[in-house]
Amino acid sequence: MEGAIEVQLRTLPMQVAGVVARRIASGEFADGLLPSEQQISGEFVVSRAVAREALKVLSSLDMVEISQGRRVVVRTAAEWDYLNPLLMEWLPQDQIPYLLQELHDARLIIEPGLAARAARTATADDLARMRECLDGMEANLERPERFLEHDLQFHLEICKATRNRMLDRFMYASRWWQSASRRITNRPRSALPAALGDHRQIYEAIEAGEPERAERAMRRHLTVTAPLLDKASPDRRP
After folding, report:
1. What is the dihedral of CA 17, 19, 22, 26, to 10 degrees?
2. At what angle do helices 96-121 and 191-207 cross, to 10 degrees?
3. Where are the beta strands (DSSP E) in 30-185?
4. How many domains does the structure of the chain reveal?
5. Looking at the structure, do residues 147 and 211 belong to the same domain, yes or no?
6. For labelling alongside 84, which of 22, 50, 63, 171 has CA 20 to 30 A away?
7. Single pTM value for the model
8. Is residue 238 situated within a structural domain?
9. Torsion on CA atoms 58, 59, 62, 65, rounded to nearest 10
10. Are residues 104 and 49 located together in one domain of the fold?
11. 71 and 99 housed in the same domain
12. How many CB atoms lie within 10 A of CB 12?
């Protein structure tokens, strides 16, 4: 049901991992060492097995390094797995705007090239799926969340059309961040019709098999949306 509240049930290890992850991201462990498995067990009143699983979750996010017989070490923030949606959920909210800016920078580097490549490689089936996304956007100009779904899928279809599995994984894995970014850039009343027009220009260039035109259209689209993120974000970090 549209507009319903999403309820996420977390296992006990995930709940513990979430609390500890927020502490790590807030800089609580300045010495770079995490409490031991036994200390976590005592603080949260959980079994050692639960504490161990929580540490494994943090390790899977590349937030900590676990070595047999040694204290758990906190890894530097640059090493964390930012494409994991759990990390996005657990980071302090004041860090999110900076990461959305970095995502947009990454998109400006990658997506114009994807559009150009798709103009060379897109098949009739690829183009048909892109058209379905455009139709979905047009049908949902008054429903931002539904529009967002088709918007995001349009960009994923462009990537799929390049037949590059590495780039496809990046685009797919970053979809949570991209959704968060679009919820900001789609806020102005004129944003959705403008975005639809931009996407049509990108599609037409890909359909025509014109790589340079497709690249320009994608770059223009992303450049236009950048100021909307800037307005919603604090000053960039130096």
Report:
1. -130
2. 30
3. 64-65, 73-74
4. 2
5. yes
6. 50
7. 0.83
8. no
9. 120
10. no
11. no
12. 15
Helix axis angle for 175-185 and 96-121, nearest 10°, is: 100
The answer on 104 and 69 residing in a single domain is no
Q: What is the pLDDT along the chain (238 residues), one digit of tens a residue?
A: 344 444 456 799 999 999 999 999 999 998 999 999 999 999 999 999 999 999 999 999 999 999 887 889 999 999 999 999 899 889 998 888 889 999 999 999 999 999 999 999 999 999 999 999 999 999 999 999 999 999 999 999 999 999 999 999 999 999 989 999 999 888 888 999 999 999 999 999 999 999 999 999 999 999 998 887 776 555 544 3
Q: Classify residue 39: in a domain, yes or no.
A: yes
Query: Do 161 and 220 sit in the same domain of this protein?
Result: yes
Rounded Cα distance between 77 and 29, Å, is: 12
Contact 203/217 with Cβ under 8 angstroms? no
103 and 73, same domain (yes or no) = no
